[in-house]
Amino acid sequence: MKKIESISYDSSLNNFNLSGKIHSSFNRTLNILTESNHFFTVAVNSVFDGPNMLKIKESNFEGLVFERGMMVKQVDEGLVIADKVSLDLSKAETYQIKPLVFPNKPNTENNNTFLGIEKYLSEQLDTVGFFRKTYQNNLEKEQHDRLLACKNALNTAVKEENKNLLEKEVIQLIGYGNGLTPSGDDFLTGLLLVANSVNYPFVTLRNSLNETVSRNLKRTNDISQHQLLHGIEGIALEPIMTFLRELYQEEIDNIQLENSLNQVISIGSSSGSDMLAGILFGLEVTFQKIIDREN
Questions:
Q1: CA–CA separation, 118 and 155 (whole Å)
Q2: Deepest in the core among 38, 257, 262, 280, taking most CB within 10 A?
Q3: Taxonomically, which superkingdom (predicted)?
């Protein structure tokens, strides 16, 4: 049995027993569904810290073949995975994901920064998600057009406080698009992170988003469901949290912002940029509602 050391893990993993079964495995991550229906990830050292994540010293799972349904057992100070790996947690550091806090007195002039970032992403990126320029076929164009149409309709729903339209467009986005976490889910995750920041000023909007997503989780895959649930909790991978915290500052540090922006873009093939689309949308509509309320 191969012995592996864990270097760190999210402290929330202490709240439940980690025994369960392998749900899915990839080059750098191993997802586990526990007996109590919790979902956590074992990740190599190059993966960003995130919710319900346990990081190991190794840079890959070389030589190990994991299959869905293999057993995972929690033992003293560690895990035994598929009777192949003994994972030692005794020296691992714990980390806690601090909540996002929406500013009490937001600088509405920062709305120009949000628009500037969105313009930059539109010019620089060509992904399979929201920031797309080229298409291999008509289906890809139709998918992109639908994503943008849902976004525009959501904008109308927020402005007009039209709950029925909001619910309709959120449902359209859940599970829609390409990738392990579809583009629609990534966009909604970004939007949820904004709406579920502590002190978010528009409670009715937040509740409508949370309730609609929660009721319709089964429209997407298991991994995406848990990502959306983290969005409702207001937590995500650390670069995403850092990016949003920076945008909440009265005076934005452009160097820090650029560093975290590039890290978020690097997440997945388009997951990071699609989450950015949702974050920027959430900030723009929220700050506009604040401006409208003050006028």
A1: 15
A2: 280
A3: Bacteria
